[in-house]
Records
---
Amino acid sequence: MYHNEREVGRSILEFISSKANTQGLKREDIHFTSKLASNTSYDAARKSIKQSVKQCGLGYIDLFLLHSPYGGKAKRLECWKAVEDAIDDWEVKTGGVSNFGVKHVSARTARVKPRIYPAVNQIEVHPFNTRTEITSFCQDHNITVEAYAPLARASRMKHPTITSLSKKYSCTAAQLMIRWSLQHDFVPLPKSITKEHIIANGDVGGFEIDTEDMKVMDGLDEYLVTDLGSS
């Protein structure tokens, strides 16, 4: 999907065997995700999964996602069957979807019921785009919400409410927004190229946003879409 599976897989294996791996992490301790670029056919999806597994060199993929609902219901079901078969063949451990809305992920709208239901829906979610309908649906149906762009791509870091609450909780704006995501039981996926920011983004266990402030942050929703691929 991202044409970097070979490089990422090689980096993971090199780290595992290096002196930098002071915790003695093994392959099974690393969670590797990849995606299907487009929903075209069962055969194309099956081929893509096999190529991803081969290129990453990790033996299997922990989570494989259908990147979007595009292509129509029939194509989605075809490609999802390819994911199911990859799970049966031990090429993929867990299957999921990305950018799916309620009508896409609801089994009630499918003519053919999947053998394996998606475990994850990866969507853009942050205080300025709370996606309440789909996140509630997913959580009610035991589908984990992975929140990409949980920092709204840094477009609201200086928002007065974010600034005020960051000061109140003695944290960065990014930490506040990540903590909001965690307290909604999402799995946030913050991105950064700065080592200090990466470390800070993981250091969010030392505080908890109180109920009233969570409601205030929920109220910031403006359906801000920072990624045109989300739906």
---
Amino acid sequence: MTSLLSNVWHLRRVAEASAKPCHICYKSTASVLITPDQKDHFYICPGHLKDRGFCTPIVDEAEAAAKKKQEELDREIELIKAEYAEKLKKRKKSKDSKKKEKTTEKEKGKEKENSKDDEDDEDVKAEKEKNEKIKAITDKDSTVTGDDGGPRVFMLQKYWF
């Protein structure tokens, strides 16, 4: 007795050396649609996977939400890095203006030693602050996605031409 195939197909990639022709257009492809129980499969090119008349992706809502959250975290990290770069520019401008104000060489000699220590301390503190903010954001959500960007599960259309 034969069992009916479910209309759920998982996309798998094979090595380019193992590529075979697409089931529809006979172009060489490394994409394979396979059933969850791995009893049936066929090679299909990426162009046909995008064709809504042939198949439709089954989108996992949790995965989509996790991807959106990761993008938000990436944007937040970029804002922190930009803020840090802005702080460094302001410090550099203020240091340059302070250097211009110094008039005598004695004051310059004494203050250079002090200011170098202060500059190093401020830079280290700012770098540490930046790293702590980034670490705090990344610790909130420690999920790592290894997705190649496209959907992985498809449902074939009943009729296709």
---
Amino acid sequence: MQPFDSRVRKEAYISVPYPFILGNNVAGTVAAVGAEVKDFKVGDRVVSDTPTYLTLEAKWGGWQKFVLSRAAITTKIGNADFDQAIAVPFALSTAVGALQIYLGMERPDESKRTTFEKEKVLIWGAGTSVGGYAIQYAKSVGYTVIATGNPSGAARLQNLGASHVLDYKSPDIESQLRELGPFKFLMTASGDPASQKALANLLQPIGGKFVSTLGGKVELPSNVERIYESFEAASQKPEHKEYAKWWFEDYLPKAIQGAVEPAPIVKRSGGLGAIQAAGDDVLGKNAKEKIVINPQE
């Protein structure tokens, strides 16, 4: 269950046709393949990022018992657990897509890690799934990562790679961050207006840009660019074909097999009938872990 899906269902976050089948992040066993598919066969265990929201065609919707997707945006997961595997792609691709494609962060390369260790990255809202993966990605490239989050989760964020974890509710949070900066890359994984304004303030007086997982009407200085896109869908766009090949064939398989620490999950029973309540919990912040539902139940 992704917050994005839940917002579309409950808040009409984006315009979709009606009736429509939501959901685009799925895991399962291949039941059939098209005549031109060469890299997958019946029985393969996979995760897939269906083009539901890119095409706005209901046939690609993930909230159904049998899901249609494309080979180019599907990855084999070997013997990895389905529940753990499905918790990785959406949030991880949001983090990596935002940092790499839209901010220009490099790809992990062990031979170049020491090149970036003196430069810093700020991840605001690091306690979210996207935030946790953003920490891991930036750290894997070689950057020093500064994070904000809830103090109760600070130990986990440090284990993921954050050098410092600051309480985002602290009244002098911006002053604390200025002392730790400057930052080459800035991201708000929570996306709320307060975080966007804080990052804009940190970019003063020169200005600059940051990525945000949410948009909205937020008044920001004219010398600051907020980048808000469907970061997760970047791999499906023709202009990012080379990135998509790296993502689906190299980085994502390694991540699922253990190269990254997966976000905590909780399994919900009830199959498709449990989706609405689970979505409400996600939006109401009653779910501290990623909610996983098996539509076959």
